[in-house]
Specification:
Length: 106
């Protein structure tokens, strides 16, 4: 995915109402948590890819922190442009096709 696609998504995100932004972020959290399930063996406590699981956890933490900022209508914390850059980098690091993510976001 190109930086341009994320820039376009950022513009779209900025135009959303606060509630719609929170729905967008909630869907992103859901998708990341579902993808993160592939790092461990279902039905057991076995972690198959501990490094990747940690990467998912860190990205989920960043998304949740950003969602909290939006929910509080706060100017504190990471600017949205930095958040979108971090998101793009994090998905790339996890080798996630962000086209698939973007098409599943409201």
């Amino acid at each position: 995915m190109s930086t341009q696609a994320w820039n376009t998504e950022l513009i779209r995100f900025r135009k959303m109402k606060q509630l719609d932004q929170l729905v967008w972020l909630s869907q992103l959290l859901y998708l990341l948590s579902m993808l993160g399930r592939g790092t461990y063996e279902a039905g057991t406590d076995a972690v198959l890819e501990p490094i990747k699981l940690r990467q998912f956890n860190e990205l989920i933490h960043r998304v949740a922190s950003f969602a909290k900022k939006i929910a509080k209508a706060s100017d504190q914390g990471m600017p949205d442009v930095d958040f979108f850059a971090l998101l793009q980098k994090g998905l790339s690091s996890l080798q996630i096709n962000d086209d698939e993510i973007l098409k599943r976001l409201p």
